[in-house]
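Question: I have long wanted to understand how a fold can be written as tokens. Here is the record:
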Amino acid sequence: MEQPFDRLLRDAITARGLSLERLHARLSQRGISVSLASLSNWQRGKCRPERSQSLRALHALEEILALPRDTLIAGLGPPRPRGRWVAHVPGALPYRELCPVPGSLQRLLGEIKNETDGQLALLGYHDHFTLGPDRDERAVRTRAIFQARASGVDRHVAIHYNERARLPDALSTAFCRTGRVRTDERAGLTALELLFDRPLEAGETYVVEYEFGYRRRGPESTFYNRWFRFPAHSYLLTVQFARSATPVRCFRTTATPPVDADELRLSGWDSVHVAHTNLEPGVHGIRWEWA
């Protein structure tokens, strides 16, 4: 289990044998202004850096204290919730209404110390789900567009679920850094922390891309769903089939387990899609049937 930020900082300062005065001077040489009182409070756990100016000092501290990059950021955890919008985003749904294994999911999010629910508005998601010739899941690639509801949020936790309890073994990201990864093999869940390159200001937008994949043959798949706890401005889901293994019928689905809503036409490029705007919280996806 990761140590909290204050303990990481305190132990690193002790290990390097630096006084707070010397650490303050080293930061000043780099053009970074952090008061002695703030450094003292940080290492004692009385407060923590949350403003953008303070957070910029963390990477400098990691270099000075010979810590691996993002060690202090990961130990810091997400910003502390502030304001009524954190407690209730209109229309928000609990995980127990969306996820088949809510207890496992809550445990993984607790291990990552995820507190970002509600701090990022969902402007758009695009999921591209790929299947192989053996009717198996190969990868799901996601592009997500967020908007910060308040200043300071600097991460998002992505979730992958496989009902056959096969965990992906190939993870990749773009426009963000990979943070902590937690899994529950029995439940088929993977939680991936995505670290932004900076804390966002209120109203600022941010784009991330990430992929969960299988290096070898993946699990057989007959549907893909995304769980939306909060409203989203838009959602595009495309499913790409191998030319040698196309389904006979495809359906837009809602709810979990999937409930058919509309039948979809397979394109000449062996793919099918659904596009939504002003999406309400819930479960949205595509289901297909093999010959």
Summary: The longest helix spans residues 52-64. The helical segments are 5-16, 20-29, 36-44, 52-64, 71-76, 84-87, 102-112. Residues 81-87 have pLDDT under 50 and may be disordered. Residues 25 and 33 are 9 Å apart (CA to CA).
